[in-house]
């Protein structure tokens, strides 16, 4: 890949210092003063790059690797060529993620569009009753509503809309074009471009003449500390209770959370997931892309939902579910194997009849 001017290389971190910061062991101390400036895939890593490997099935990529070091566990270290230093760890994926954050801190949040002096742009629209702490950055065309409160170190990007009475904590990032209404936002929250937080939820009652009558939505959205919300994700405010996303939870792009949904702490929700209203998601839950979650059900702590599943009923804590309707993964895989076997049998019979 040609030089990426959007994210230029780091000035350099010594390999031994990097090892200490990511919790890895440098096997060859003779290269302790080697300097790392960037991250790279294994197959095209150069002498100032660091990379990582999780599986032996990618060993062919080592043939073209010239990395400053490879982050891996003992099993992978055995196949690494002797000219490539090893940073040994039992948690290679996590260690590499930390290394990336050290080498590219500017890539950990949406890119700022700031072109003027720091502070509040004269082209922003800030209501006089808003309370803005020192050190807040508000870019041109952002709108801050009456009575809003924004904590120190927070950055509000161009075109973002912060509604009346919204409270945003410290060191948050509200990216370009996002809207935040009827919401309480904790510290170190990241909201990516185009996200919609706090609009009214979907609720209707049957009308007297066959139509529908909208049900009032007077709750809030609460995003706890260190939550991250992906681009174009929508989180509806509660009807009469609150919609809540727990501390440390990461939500991907184009996810829909309905009114009164409560998501626990440190969950991961992949793109295009839809969660219907009043569902309860426990702590540490992982939900794969494009899964559909029914309303008024509970998914227990540390459960995992496979991509493109349809979850119609409660999922017990710690279980892995998949399929439509979602069921325990062992049952889903058995069903898929039986379907494949029947299909193969039909094809075989059809081929025999042709003969």
UniProtKB/TrEMBL annotation:
The lineage of its organism: Bacteria, Pseudomonadati, Pseudomonadota, Alphaproteobacteria, Hyphomicrobiales. Residues 33-99 form the UDP-3-O-[3-hydroxymyristoyl] glucosamine N-acyltransferase non-repeat region domain. PANTHER family: UDP-3-O-ACYLGLUCOSAMINE N-ACYLTRANSFERASE (PTHR43378), UDP-3-O-ACYLGLUCOSAMINE N-ACYLTRANSFERASE 1, MITOCHONDRIAL-RELATED (PTHR43378:SF2). Signal peptide: none annotated. Homotrimer. It holds the Pfam family Hexapep_2. InterPro entries: Hexapep (IPR001451), Hexapep_transf_CS (IPR018357), LpxD (IPR007691), Trimer_LpxA-like_sf (IPR011004), UDP_GlcNAc_AcTrfase_non-rep (IPR020573). The keyword Ribonucleoprotein does not apply. One of its GO terms (molecular function) is UDP-3-O-[(3R)-3-hydroxyacyl]-glucosamine N-acyltransferase activity. One of its GO terms (cellular component) is membrane. This is UDP-3-O-acylglucosamine N-acyltransferase. HAMAP family: LpxD. It comes from Pararhizobium antarcticum. The keyword Lipid metabolism applies.
